[in-house]
Every structure is written in structure tokens, then in C-alpha cells.
Amino acid sequence: MRRLLYPILWSGIGSLLLLSLFIPQWRSHAQSTGDGQQKTKISKKILDKVAAGQGSDTVDVIIEATGGADQSFETALAEAGANNVTKLDNFPISIVSVPADGALNLSNRSDVAFVSLDREVRPMGHVSATTGADAVRKGSDTSVGFDGSGIGIAIVDSGIDTGHRSFLNKTNDPRVVHSEDFTGEGRTDDPYGHGTHVASLAAGNGRIAQAKYIGIAPNASLINLRVLDSEGVGSTKSVLQALDWIASNHSQYNIRVVNLSLGMPAVDSYRNDPICRAVRALVDQGIVVFAAAGNNGKGSDGNKVYGHIHSPGNEPSAITVGATNTFGTDSRDDDRVATFSSRGPTRSFTTDDGGVRHYDNLIKPDLVAPGNRLIDAEAAGNLLVTQNPSLDAGISQNVSRKMMTLSGSSMATPIAAGTAALMLQANPNLTPNLVKALLMYTAQPLAGFNMLEQGAGQINVAGAAQLASLVRGDVNGATAVGSPLLSVATPPQAQTTIAGRSFTWSRGIILNHTYVTGVDIITKYQVVYSPGMLLGSGVITGDGILQLDPSLFSEGVITGDQILTSYGVITGDGASFLATNLLFQDLLSEGSFLSDGVITGDGVITGDGVITGDGVITGDLIPIAQAAMLNGDDSATMTNASDDGSDCLNY
Questions:
Q1: Which is the catalytic residue, given 157, 366, 392, 620?
Q2: Is 417's pLDDT higher than 60?
Q3: Which residue in the list 29, 126, 164, 194 is annotated as catalytic?
Q4: What is the pLDDT of residues 243-283, one digit of tens each?
Q5: Which of 92, 333, 479, 531 pairs as cysteine with 65 (C-beta 3.0–4.6 A)?
Q6: Phi/psi at 479 (nearest 5 deg)?
Q7: C-beta separation of 260 from 289 below 8 A
Q8: pLDDT-derived band of residue 6, with 50, 70 and 90 as boundaries?
Q9: Of 480, 563, 493, which Cα lies nearest the Cα of 524?
């Protein structure tokens, strides 16, 4: 069963065809994130293979270029023995099969930014009430309700069963407006079962079981991009092709949100990881990208493990989502971070000429959302239920109305993606960085969990949509720092009431290696909200001190110096867990404070130190993560509501 759920598949076909419109953007990113000490431009596993005398072995690699392809580059590919070449239109990437020696030679070219392996991609696997989405959809006496209408959400996953009743609108028209297959299987349905469940959590309608399992944005359009095959297996290549397709077609389908409930080992730094760089390019185009944190939060001994954030969740421009356990109740008082949810910091790294690793050490996830034993749409005859019949929730016997139960950060991520669709419907002018900031600022910190477990806190759909609707529609990259951000003079009270219980917002946001607090975050425009920037761009580090660039942040934004265990009141409140200056001391060699195996707080820092024999992070292959996806934490599940077979349209 494990082989079918999480097998490893290496794929290698690729070529390089660059669209000149995107080349300057990509080159700019490489320059802006470059590390002066970074010289090694190839994955360590390829170097190890060459060093072991296996340079003639063929490897499937992704070659990231710094500019357009010219004849000398094409000649170099041929001389290196590259074959099986595919073309991407929007990203300067070539995916090829080549001898390891040839890959090393190519990495030495000045027009090559990085050479990495084509790694495997895996799926990660009451909600509307407990998140506050019901209140947003229904509106109030003074506000209009939002349901995601007009917003396109791209589901990059194992396909969508478009015959399921969850994907119709109220006039029986399909909401899956486009489907595309990148697996080579020539089908766009969901024989594996993961993508349909993910899509319905983001945007399933409320027709079944009296809207008990309604998605967050039930009238959003869905774009089905299939990158995981019938056994739930994909490759870097297939994900890159899907992201490339989005870059070309996002305007036609108004794709404002991308959901990536999948992941692969985060070994190479986000500066070099090709999927991370493709995600950054999409964010720079104004598309909000959500990525699952992973399901490797505890080891086989049951203890907490830190440092297992997956790629592309290690990309700073992505919104990385971990999972919480709601215990099946609408009240948020008992919510906690799920034991399986991956914890930060990110442990992807670069290697300099001296063989010293420089870890990214970003604070991730950015926030958390319900992801334990969630019930939603079940694809017809899918592999997950076939092999695990208990996953069927018993809601209906009608194949087009069946529901199933899954757990994981994969399930939490589409809840956040659906929230972004509501926010963008409320205010289409929001930039990805503003969406990210508002989500974190309004999140609820969960007591007893540090920032490396929950980021800013648990998602608050109602608060995020409320703030989104108040942001001025005329702010843009030319707006001066400190200018009014909201259309009202007085900001709303930083509090939300859900299921009769009130909680205070985090009132802070995560910035790479630190966090900031202060009401200026939402009352004044910060230049880092502009397109093409990172929220952490204005953080200046030096001599162990963090400062904010006054040209990018207003004076009322205050930086913190500790990773905190929250008391559940504010992001900057709680007992000290870890000094932030330790996170950006990546110039230190192995044996530094954050080396693999060092105990930090209540767990052990790991990363590429927990690997298989060939250097690939164990990831979702471990039984703990597999159990998380199928069974979740030991707790109450969502209440099973029977379906009488009639369509509920009052949602």
C-alpha cells in the first residue's frame, strides 16, 4: 500500500524555450536573492554521484538559465549528452536527461543559474462554521456576502471528478472551467482521489447533506491541472509545466489563486529550487500561491520534529499552511496544531566552495488551518478509498454525492486558498503580499504552540475578508510608505466572534526570520505590499541585530527578536522559544546552533539529516505521515450527516 500511496518516480524530459517577457523578471530574482558566498550551482546528490565515480550515470535534471537560450547553450546541451527535451514557455528552465558529468559541466556555464534533480512530488492529504466562512458567505445587515464568484482557483493536484455534484453552480452549470493533464496519462479525472477532496474543501458547493460539507468559496471557478497520476505520483517536471500553463493562461480564467497541496524534499535552497522560482514568478504576476507545509511533524518515536517543511512551502513568497485539529467542534477554544503538521524552520540550503551549507532557516508555516479528519467530495472509484474503504464517510450511496475523510496539511491548504478567493472577490485590487499580510494579521494564535509550528496562528476567514473589504482600491506600487491603507479612518476592532466565542487577532505578520507587530501593518501602506517584493525585503540583518528599512516600513511597525510560544493573544506575546538571530546565522558551518539533531525547545531540528541512503528526504514515505493523511490525529472527526439525495440550494 505504501508503494502505491507514495512511490518515487523520477521523470526527465525537457528543453528550453524562453518567452522574453519573463526572462528579465527571472534574472532579477536571481540577482536579488543571490548570496555572495554561494558558488556551487548544482545539487549535492549529483556531486556525490560524480565523486563516487558514477559520472556516466544518467540523471534527470532541471537546468535554470540566467537568460535566453542561444546557440552556444544548445550546443553545450548536445555536447553534454542531454536528451529528452521539453519546452516551457514562461520560465527559463530546461528539463533534460544527461550524464552526471555533463550536468556538472553545464553548471559551470555563466548562463546557468542552477542544476537540480527532477524530484518526486507527493500529495500531502463544520469547516465553514469554525473558520468563519459561513459569516462571510451570508454577509450581515451592513455587508454583502462573498462566495468566490468570478475568482479562479487553480488546483494543481491529482485531477478533479467533474461529475461530482459539489462542482456545479446554482444553475447546474459546471464550475470546473478548464482541465489539463500533465502526467502523460491522457485523462483529467481523479482516479487517485486526492485532488477532488482538495478542490471541494476550497470551493465545493453546499448541495449535499444540507450544506454540512460546503467549501470555503462555493461559487469560485476551478481550474483542474493534473500533475499527480493514478497512483498519486508526480514529478518536478509535471508541476513546472502546470505552473508554466498558469503563467500563460491566468488572464483568460482569472486565476488569482493557486493551490499546491503537494510537496517534495526541500533540499535545494528556495534561491535555486525551480518550483520555488516558478512560484515566485507567479506571485510577481499578482497570483496568490498556497503550499502545504507537509505531514512530518513527529518522528517514529512520537516526538516533535522540526525542519521538515516541504518544497515549495519553503518559498518565502508562497503562503505555507500547516494543519490544526479542531476536534470536530465549531468552537475554536480547543483547537491545536495537529501532531503530524510539519514544523519549521526551512532546512533547504546552498553549499559554498568549501562544502559549507548555508541553511535558509525561514520561519514557516505562515499560518495553520483545519486539516484533521475533514469530510468532503469523494472521486468515483478512487484508489485511496478502494485501498482504504474506511475513508468513505458513509454520507451517500450515490456515486456523484459520496464524501470521504482525509487528514493532512493538504486539507488545510485549500481552506486558506478558498479564503483568498473570498478576499479577492471583496477587493480585487489586493496584491499577493497584502493577502498574505491580512491572513496573518487576523489569524488566531493558538496557546502553547510556537511560531515554527503555527506561524502567525489559525486562519480566521471572517476577519481576513472583513479587512480585505476595507483596503483602499487605489493603493499600488507607487503609493508612499505610511499612506493610509484603509478606506475608513478607524480600523475595526481586532477581534472576531465565531460559534459564540470571541478571540483576538494575532496583530502581527511573519517576515522570513522574524515577525513584526503594530497597528500600522493594517492602517498604513507598507512598500513591501507592492507587487514584485517579498514581505521580508525590508528586514536588515547585521551583527545579530534585526532592523526595518524605513523606506519600506512605517515607524509604527515593530520587529520582534524571539520565536515565541504564544499565549493565544498576540503574535508577539508568549514565552521565548528561540532567538530569531539564530535563524539567520546561516554563515555558520555544520555544528552551529541549528544543525541537524540539535535539541531546540521541545523538539529536535532535522532536515536533510533525516534521509534515505540516496540523499532524498524520507518525507511522506514514513509511516507516521502516511497515517496522518489517512487517519489524522486520534480525535473526533467531523459529524457525519446523512444525505437524502435532494439538492440543497440555500447555501
A1: 157
A2: yes
A3: 194
A4: 999 999 999 999 999 999 998 878 899 999 999 999 999 99
A5: 92
A6: -70, 135
A7: yes
A8: very low
A9: 480
Cis upstream peptide for 414 (omega within 30°): no
Q: Assess contact for 153 and 217: CB atoms under 8 A.
A: yes
Q: Cell numbers at residue 508, please?
A: 502581527
* pLDDT, tens only, 596-645: 443 333 444 444 433 322 222 222 323 444 555 566 776 555 556 677 77
* CATH for the stretch 2-118: 3.30.70.80
Active site residue 29: no
Task: Name the CA dihedral angle for 69, 74, 77, 78, rounded to a multiple of 10 degrees.
Answer: 170
Over the range 523-533, which residues count as b (16 or more CB within 10 Å of their CB) and which as e?
Answer: bbbbbbbbebb
Calculate the CA dihedral of residues 266, 269, 275, 279 and round it to 10 degrees.
120
Homologous superfamily of 122-630 = Peptidase S8/S53 domain (3.40.50.200)
Residue that the C-alpha cell 485511496 belongs to: 384
Q: Please give the Cα distance from 572 to 563 (Å, whole number).
A: 9
**pLDDT number for residue 255:** 98
Known active-site residue 410: yes
pLDDT digits (tens, 9 = 90+) for 509-539: 999 989 999 999 999 999 999 999 999 998 8
Which three three-digit cell numbers place residue 176? Answer: 470546473
Q: Hey, is 643 helix, strand or coil?
A: coil
Residue 140 one-letter amino acid? S
Choosing from 410, 469, 537, 554, the catalytic residue is 410
> What confidence score (pLDDT) does residue 140 get?
60
Q: Delimit the domains of the chain by residue range.
A: 2-118, 122-630
pLDDT of residue 181: 98
Domains 2-118 and 122-630 share a fold: no
Q: Burial letters for 339-360: b for 16+ Cβ neighbours within 10 Å, e otherwise? A: bbbbbbbbbbbbbbeeebbbbb
